[in-house]
């Protein structure tokens, strides 16, 4: 694993903050999809929402040097197309030169902090569409969690729709990650039943004045065999999100393998389970996931 020099990153940030924009301006870009038409994106936008836990470790993603080293390793593996992250992490990766010829997806709404009373009032506190365009990034991602009992969900729906409009106006793809949620004992719980995921897809697909640049970022349903029926809800291209594996990495691979055969599924966006695998082998976990494509 290549060692990241944090001292040099801090020196650049302190003495030459323009280095971020300069690196973005000279970055070698690539199409979102190669001719093979499959995407493998590494996700690392969790810390900006205060979600630092992986498995039994409550602060696994808190060490920025270690996270950057794992990201650089993952991005160096054959078949990995790019990364999804918040501005601070993407700025670091730009300065490290790790985003050349990679798809860069900026995370847009990070205001719904994990565990907060206002978690579902998910404000757009990250990348704006204009930021993504200015930095020559390739796409954006927004989280759309809907609780029918929480008025904050309406604010998020409205903001998400306007973000879809703004991204379409710039001809930038936007990955919408929808969930139907509910509160249980003070915690937010996502409903991964076939009915709930179907409803979330229908809601997300209808956001904004056009869906021309909208992609879906979807979980695998509780029963993976339901995915074929669930994905009939929309013609929008979709990628599968990784989520927590509960220690069953092989089971996760098998669920992804089945869903990747479906016609609207164009790839994977996976984060913690590949960056922090139980056996510590980041390269092995990434290579296995790439092999599923």
Question: Which SSEs are present, and which pair or pack?
Answer:
Layout: H1 6-15, H2 19-26, E1 39-44, H3 64-76, E2 82-85, H4 87-95, E3 103-107, H5 129-134, E4 139-146, H6 152-169, E5 174-184, E6 187-191, H7 194-205, E7 214-218, H8 227-230, E8 238-241, H9 249-259, E9 265-270, H10 272-275, H11 282-292
Helix pairs in contact: 2-4
What does this molecule look like?
- With 293 residues, this protein is α/β, with parallel strands linked by helices.
- Helix content is 36%, strand content 18%.
- It has eleven helices and nine strands.
- It has helices at residues 6-15, 19-26, 64-76, 87-95, 129-134, 152-169, 194-205, 227-230, 249-259, 272-275, 282-292; strands spanning 39-44, 82-85, 103-107, 139-146, 174-184, 187-191, 214-218, 238-241, 265-270.
- The chain has an eight-stranded parallel β-barrel with strand order 1-2-3-4-5-7-8-9, surrounded by four helices.
- The longest helix has 18 residues, at 152-169.
- The chain is globular, with a radius of gyration of 18 Å.
- The two termini are 24 Å apart.
- The model has no long low-confidence stretch (mean pLDDT 94).
């Amino acid at each position: 694993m290549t060692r990241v020099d944090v001292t040099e990153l801090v020196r650049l940030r302190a003495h030459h903050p323009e280095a971020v924009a300069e690196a973005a301006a000279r970055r070698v870009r690539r199409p979102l999809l190669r001719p093979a038409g499959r995407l493998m994106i590494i996700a690392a936008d969790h810390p900006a929402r205060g979600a630092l836990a992986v498995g039994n470790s409550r602060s696994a993603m808190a060490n920025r040097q270690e996270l950057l080293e794992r990201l650089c390793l993952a991005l160096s593996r054959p078949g990995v197309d790019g990364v999804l992250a918040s501005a601070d992490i993407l700025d670091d990766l730009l300065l490290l030169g790790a985003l050349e010829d990679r798809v860069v997806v900026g995370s847009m709404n990070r205001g719904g902090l994990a565990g907060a009373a206002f978690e579902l009032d998910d404000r757009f506190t990250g990348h704006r569409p204009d930021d993504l365009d200015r930095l020559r990034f390739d796409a954006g991602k927004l989280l759309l969690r809907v609780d029918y009992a929480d008025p904050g969900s309406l604010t998020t729906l409205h903001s998400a729709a306007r973000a879809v409009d703004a991204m379409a106006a710039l001809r930038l793809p936007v990955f919408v990650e929808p969930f139907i949620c509910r509160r249980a004992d003070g915690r937010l719980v996502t409903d991964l039943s076939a009915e709930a995921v179907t409803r979330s897809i229908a809601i997300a697909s209808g956001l904004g004045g056009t869906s021309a640049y909208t992609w879906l970022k979807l979980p695998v349903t509780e029963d993976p065999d339901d995915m074929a029926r669930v994905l009939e809800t929309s013609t929008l291209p979709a990628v599968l999100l990784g989520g927590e594996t509960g220690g069953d990495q092989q089971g996760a691979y098998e669920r992804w393998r089945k869903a990747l055969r479906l016609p609207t599924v164009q790839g994977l966006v996976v984060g913690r389970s590949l960056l922090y695998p139980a056996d510590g082998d980041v390269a092995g976990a990434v290579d296995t996931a790439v092999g599923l494509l």
